[in-house]
């Protein structure tokens, strides 16, 4: 589950991480009020107006701007709220902005220069350890840094049984070229950031940039946070932060129906029971010359109502040219699934794409007979290769 910047910063602050303070506003008038409040609390005269969407690269798309007075706060906030923000991480249509974060200006003058760093915490799946990734080259072009100068990207792996050790935090601060007060501040920052990552059950914390201010404070100017969905049952305070407006509406609808659905860019809809079989089915479609349009696991209760709901979800995608149903009948009987397919087909009326049904396992022979004698435009298959050949044929 992805969070907005302001939500990620709330989590960081709760674990003692210094953040760039800000207030969320939903219209231009609220933005002005937020700016006035920040001025009273922090003394800042300038404010940064940031679009709150689940996408990086907001600055490049015009979603992050500096306001030097209250008139500019009102004007900029009014122009950003309601716009479709297009960034390198959105579709061509972009994402609609519903709110902005009015933040304090932390690039204030001082005796020393400011510096921007990149710091993230995530899981290294290859080693089964958490990893802190960091660089001296923080800012908007970190992707280019990783591509063109990968030697400027450092990593520090952490054994989950011991947690982040003090020498590792010092090593990170040293590699970032810090000394004195800034060095001490960075070690505290890294320790608190790692604690926030672990204790919030996050899958990623990305801070870009981490700022060294002119008075050697270290703070998070941005925050990109993803919470592990599987841990939300014990992190209800974070589950309440979910913004459904930022998610794929078809995936949201499928989730409400109890279906495990992920939208993809292909042309063959998949309906499968079991995640492993679903992955194998997607491989099967690729080998047949198609592209999977979705990942859809209906689970172990593939009755008529559930199958009909799955059909409706798949057919919301206009790119779907065929549907492959691949069910292994272990706990669920294949004949019940077949009857569910037939009942769902009749309830929905005309379905204008070919349907291939492969049922294997308990009562598979009865299921095939039901499909073949239904009189519906549904093709049955028994073997994997047979199903692949029929997918290939309907796509030809």
Helices and strands, with pairings:
Blueprint: H1 5-14, E1 22-25, H2 28-42, E2 47-51, E3 64-67, H3 70-80, E4 84-85, E5 95-96, E6 100-104, E7 115-124, E8 129-135, H4 142-148, E9 153-158, H5 166-175, H6 180-199, E10 202-212, E11 218-220, E12 224-227, H7 236-239, H8 249-256, E13 260-263, E14 268-272, H9 275-287, E15 294-297, H10 304-314, E16 322-329, H11 334-348, E17 355-361, H12 364-372, E18 378-381, H13 384-395
Parallel strand pairs: 14-16, 16-17, 17-18
Antiparallel strand pairs: 1-6, 2-3, 2-6, 4-5, 7-8, 7-10, 8-9, 10-11, 10-12, 13-15
Helix pairs in contact: 2-3, 5-6, 10-11, 11-12
Structure annotation, total helices: 13
State the name of the first-level CATH class of the largest domain: Alpha Beta
Coarse structural class: alpha+beta
What is the CATH superfamily classification of the largest domain?
ATP-grasp fold, B domain
Percent of residues in helical segments? 25-40%
Largest sheet: 6 strands, antiparallel
Low-confidence stretches: none
Proportion in β-strands: 15-25%
CATH architecture of the largest domain: 2-Layer Sandwich
Q: What is the chains' assembly state?
A: single chain
GO molecular function: ATP binding; magnesium ion binding; succinate-CoA ligase (ADP-forming) activity; succinate-CoA ligase (GDP-forming) activity
Protein name: Succinate--CoA ligase [ADP-forming] subunit beta
GO biological process, one term: succinyl-CoA metabolic process
Pathway: Carbohydrate metabolism; tricarboxylic acid cycle; succinate from succinyl-CoA (ligase route): step 1/1
């Amino acid at each position: 589950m992805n969070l907005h910047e302001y939500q990620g910063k709330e989590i960081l602050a709760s674990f003692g991480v210094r953040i760039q303070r800000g207030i969320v506003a939903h219209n231009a008038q609220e933005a002005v009020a937020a700016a006035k409040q920040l001025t009273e609390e922090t003394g800042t005269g300038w404010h940064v107006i940031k679009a709150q969407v689940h996408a990086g690269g907001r600055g490049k798309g015009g979603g992050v701007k500096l306001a030097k007075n209250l008139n500019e706060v009102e004007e900029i906030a009014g122009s950003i709220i309601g716009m479709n923000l297009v960034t390198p991480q959105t579709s061509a249509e972009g994402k609609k902005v519903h709110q902005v974060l009015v933040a304090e200006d932390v690039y204030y003058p001082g005796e020393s220069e400011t510096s921007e760093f990149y710091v993230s915490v995530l899981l290294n799946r290859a080693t089964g350890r958490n990893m802190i990734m960091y660089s001296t080259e923080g800012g908007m072009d970190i992707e280019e840094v990783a591509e063109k100068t990968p030697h400027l990207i450092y990593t520090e792996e952490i054994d989950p049984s011991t947690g982040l050790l003090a020498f590792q935090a010092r090593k990170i601060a040293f590699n970032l070229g810090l000394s004195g007060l800034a060095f001490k501040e960075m070690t505290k920052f890294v320790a608190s950031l790692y604690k926030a990552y672990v204790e919030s059950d996050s899958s990623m914390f990305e801070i870009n940039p981490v700022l060294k201010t002119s008075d050697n404070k270290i703070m998070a100017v941005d925050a990109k946070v993803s919470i592990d969905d599987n841990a939300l049952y014990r992190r209800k305070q974070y589950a309440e932060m979910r913004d459904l407006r930022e998610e794929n509406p078809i995936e949201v609808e499928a989730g409400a129906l109890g279906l495990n659905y992920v939208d993809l860019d292909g042309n063959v809809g998949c309906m499968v029971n079991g995640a492993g079989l679903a992955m194998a089915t997607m491989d099967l479609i690729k080998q047949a010359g198609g592209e999977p349009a979705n990942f859809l696991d209906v689970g172990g209760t593939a009755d008529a109502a559930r199958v009909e709901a799955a059909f409706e979800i798949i057919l919301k995608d206009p790119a779907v040219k065929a549907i492959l149903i691949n069910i292994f009948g272990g706990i669920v009987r294949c004949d019940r699934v077949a009857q569910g397919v037939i009942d769902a087909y009749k309830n929905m009326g005309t379905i204008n794409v070919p349907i291939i049904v492969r049922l294997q396992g308990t009562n598979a022979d009865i299921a095939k007979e039901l499909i073949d004698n239904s009189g519906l435009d549904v093709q049955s298959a028994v073997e994997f290769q047979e199903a692949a050949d029929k997918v290939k044929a309907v796509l030809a």
